[in-house]
Design brief:
Strand order of the largest sheet: 3-2-1-4-5-6-7
Number of strands: 13
Radius of gyration: 21 Å
Distance between the termini: 12 Å
Structural class: alpha/beta
Strand content: 15-25%
């Protein structure tokens, strides 16, 4: 069978790569063409476009690059038509994917969606489009199945793919990790400022202000695979921190605490059982727009899934040195850490067991065989 997969960002690349591996096991002759990243490319198939080319953050940033975005959409439709896949598989990245899905459904292509657009957070009217344009939707958060059921749409809860990604990774020992990266013997505070240039610039500059106040700890910046050291160097300057690129999971596995940009990384940090403070600061215009359309009590996946404040969230103006310092000091206290660990274990239970990618691949391939 011929599969056309469209993923965006580093997380989509990770989940897309794991899905591709399972598709190849289910269908050894699978012909896969995709939009993704380095991890998907390493699995095989044909890479059409790298997600780095489309890394625009926020409403204002997308607006500034509107002609580029429209160009990508036009090219994508043309490429799909030429490839004529048996199924289109969309992974997250709703702004781009839902536009392609509408066109694809009109053209008669079979459409599957893995990792639901966050319609439960904002613009719920998109449910109508999803019901119209998507043949099968595979969701990864436990509350999503009931959400869609309430709107008259049956979806498949498959568990969260991060559980597989973390469980299947190659283990590292703390001694070897410290030695390899020339780290001290001090407890590590990981800094995860995101993956896009706009968010890294805003997050990391504030995070770094805490380094002098916590001299008994080793601060380590987790570099995103989409950015080069030269970019980080401009922000870090002479600040005494270590920098480790593209090894976030290894870093989290040996960390004592973390300051984390809102997004998938908050859930990854929780699954590694690392106490964290969640940070967010966007462009002024983008934030004001988002604030008016997002209806959630929380911004981190950890708090959303647990439906309570498990981790401290510092958003926009609250994300400043004074508040961040107090929040970090809090999660270094034994009592706060113990409470957070108990919530993390409950969180993992709610996410379901291993095998999300396998379940999705099996259902996609089975669906094609029925046809």
């Amino acid at each position: 069978m011929k599969y056309y997969i469209i993923a965006g960002e580093a997380s989509g690349d990770l989940h897309g790569a794991n899905l591709m591996k399972e598709l190849q096991l289910q269908d050894p002759n699978a012909d896969i063409r995709f939009w993704g990243g380095d991890l998907m490319q390493a699995v095989g198939g044909h890479l059409v476009s790298h997600y780095k080319e489309r890394a625009f953050m926020g409403f204002f940033e997308v607006l500034k690059n509107l002609f580029k975005v429209l160009g990508f959409i036009k090219f994508c439709k043309k490429d799909i038509a030429l490839f004529s896949p048996d199924v289109l598989i969309f992974i997250d990245n709703s702004g781009f994917n839902l536009r392609i899905a509408k066109w694809a459904k009109e053209q008669g292509f079979k459409t599957n969606y893995y990792i639901s657009p966050q319609v439960w957070a904002s613009r719920a009217r998109r449910i109508k489009d999803i019901k119209r344009d998507i043949d099968a939707l595979f969701v990864i958060l436990p509350f999503e199945k009931q959400f869609y059921k309430a709107h008259g749409y049956t979806v498949h809860f498959v568990g969260h793919p991060l559980i597989d990604a973390i469980a299947d990774r190659t283990q590292v020992t703390e001694v070897n990790f410290r030695k390899e990266h020339r780290l001290s013997n001090q407890k590590i505070i990981a800094l995860l400022p995101g993956s896009r240039k706009q968010e890294i610039t805003k997050m990391l500059s504030v995070m770094l202000t805490l380094v002098p106040d916590f001299s008994g700890y080793q601060f380590v910046v987790a570099g995103a695979p989409s950015q080069d050291w030269s970019f980080y160097k401009q922000i870090i300057g002479a600040t005494e921190v270590a920098f480790i690129n593209n090894k976030t999971y290894d870093l989290l596995s040996v960390s004592h605490a973390a300051l984390v940009a809102s997004g998938t990384a908050t859930l990854e940090t929780a699954l590694f059982k690392v106490p964290q403070v969640v940070c967010y600061k966007g462009g002024t215009i983008s934030y004001q727009i988002a604030k008016r359309i997002i209806t959630l009590k929380y911004i981190s996946l950890v708090n959303l899934i647990m439906d309570k404040e498990v981790v401290k969230e510092l958003i926009q103006s609250d994300f400043n040195k004074k508040a961040l310092k107090a929040a970090l000091a809090k999660i270094l206290e034994a009592s706060s850490r113990e409470k957070m660990f108990l919530n993390y274990f409950e969180l993992e239970k709610q996410l379901g067991g291993k095998g999300a990618s396998k379940k999705v691949a099996k259902q996609i391939v089975s669906g094609l065989k029925v046809v």
